[in-house]
Amino acid sequence: MYYRFGKVFHFISVLVFILSFLYIYASLSDVVAYQLDENGGFLKSVPKETFFYSGIILFIVLNVLMITPGKLIENQSTPNLKRIFPKGDSLSDFMLAWIYSFVGIINISLMIMALFVHSINNQNEISSGQFSFFFYLIPILFVIWIAALFWILVQKFKSVQANSN
């Protein structure tokens, strides 16, 4: 049941990333700066197409790599996964929800980084100083999700240990 919420969150994060990334791509100039010097000049920059294609490739690779374990567990692909994460088990549901929601958090993080690059290049719309909250939020979310993973794993170890006795 919970994994469906994780899947919906992942799907929404994919849509939000794609829409915001396309908006950012359309509003950028031909040269995209990703680091500024003290005077506000471009210290490091790449062509617009390189930024777009590297961003999309990074997004696709991260999503495929991170969703694959969830799909393997969900489809019960191997006998070991059937034994460790049986269908209908609440901890299996929590693990799937964690995987899908964690990929959603990664997608949101990529979107925030893309918006930061957009703010560097379009200072008149949003200043890059307004992103400090998000740069603190991303690590906090990662820590919370990693702590939740450890909680799920500890509960799974306890249930496996109780079933073996």
Automatic annotation (TrEMBL):
Highest taxon listed in the record's lineage: Bacteria
Alphabetical UniProt keywords: Membrane, Transmembrane, Transmembrane helix
Membrane spanning residue stretches: 7-26, 51-73, 94-121, 133-154
Transmembrane helix as UniProt keyword: yes
Descriptive protein name: DNA topoisomerase IV
The organism of origin for this protein: Belliella aquatica
Lineage: Bacteria, Pseudomonadati, Bacteroidota, Cytophagia, Cytophagales
